[in-house]
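ok so I'm stuck.
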Amino acid sequence: MTRIGLIVLLAVAALAAVGLAVAASPWWWFAAGPLLLLGALGIHDLLQRGHAVLRNYPILGRARFLMESLRPELQQYFVERNFDGRPFDRDTRSIVYERAKGTDAEEPFGTERDVYRPGYEYLVPSMAPRPVPEEPPRVRIGGPDCTRPYDMALLNVSAMSFGSLSANAILALNGGAAAGGFAHDTGEGGLSRYHLRPGGDIVWEIGTGYFGCRTKDGGFDAGQFADKAAHDNVKCVSLKLSQGAKPGIGGVLPGAKVNAEIAEVRGVPEGQTVISPPYHRVFSTPRELVRFLARMRELAGGKPTGFKICPGSRRQFLAVCKAMLEEGVTPDFIVVDGGEGGTGAAPLEFADHIGAPLTEGLLTVHNALVGTGLRDRIRIGASGKIATGADLVKRLAQGADYGNAARAMMFAVGCIQAQRCHTNTCPTGVTTQDPRRARAIDVGEKTQRVRRLQEATVASALQIMASMGVTEPGLLRPHMLRRRIDPHTVLSYEELYDWLPPGGLLAEPPAAWAADWEAADPDTFSV
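replied:
not stuck anymore, here's the structure
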């Protein structure tokens, strides 16, 4: 039954009950009253703009909010009975939702985390906290070969494609980026008018399907790329090598979601399932990759150019570093995507078992660039379940320069994790191309939620850093992040991992890196 059908049914039933109350028996007023109230409530739900679920499911959607109101009591019930063997963690989604709505506030009582559980991590406060900066710092993206550098915010919208997301969701994300002064990654699905209309800064991502700059046979079209990269809103261009949730395979967009507009944006047939190849056609060796990045930057008019990767083999990444050194060409940024990242659809084995977690990925990329003397030319972005200020600060301490968030931004737009992204029946209109469902997203309201979430999350990160005695991200150090190993042992990240000195691989590689460095070949991706 459609949402309009439910309201019509209630209206008909209410009118019938009123008629029977007037013509037959006043007892019918006991039915007419509730039916009239439900009808009015349904109309209110249909017209309100604050809750996408209620716009798509008037009256029925209120069951969700009833369960949310019961959550603290239910949560306490399970904590007291140690239902799962340890206390519940704080619900990160609640933090994101409250910040997006602008109602974030302190809460009573202490942590709900088991601080003696092995693996528990915490940031180290200082006995001499610093004032919180009045303006959030920005990260200059642009190496020596970049002629049009870009100042990146500390937190930005991570890659999510039009097609996977609805037009209204893209409008809200880009509108939030425009209002808040941060960047919006397009994902690999192409550059659409919904990315450009609000005026937010764009990182245009190119995947293995070359959507938006694609030849008829699926190759890379340099002319199309240059024309679109020249748009003023496009601040950076990024080549997607792999994605955290599904490294080693291409993306899939079901045919039910490939309408005429998406087909035009991507340059693919309408109504047919789109499967991106698992590999790029424009390069086959690390050296060719580096040369293609240089070509992309030239075609983009000198704008910052980089690539995204979910690291796997350290030897392969070192081969890319050797290619950079030998060719004298470096990207301006590298986005490290963690294996814990999400996606609308992927084989479970890939999501659960393939690709390095974000921590290990960052350590690999950061140390490799430091060890080859390239770190000062290349900025590192981190993406993979960054939802709070603490998440962001941890990634900065692990070697990142800035962060990207996808899932948290989807929550701000209205996602409730119904996990129906691949069915085209998303109940909140976020991941669907059904216009009747997508209309549930009030673009103006969700735009402000995206802006508020980013602003509050960055403010939280700055406040945390100030409590650690740090006024800017570049002053964070690995010893400021610690992990419990067992009930009696706590080690800092400085002690847990090897940290290479600048140029350390070029001089005398440490034993732990020597074999991989020796075997790394800039002319092959052999593992």
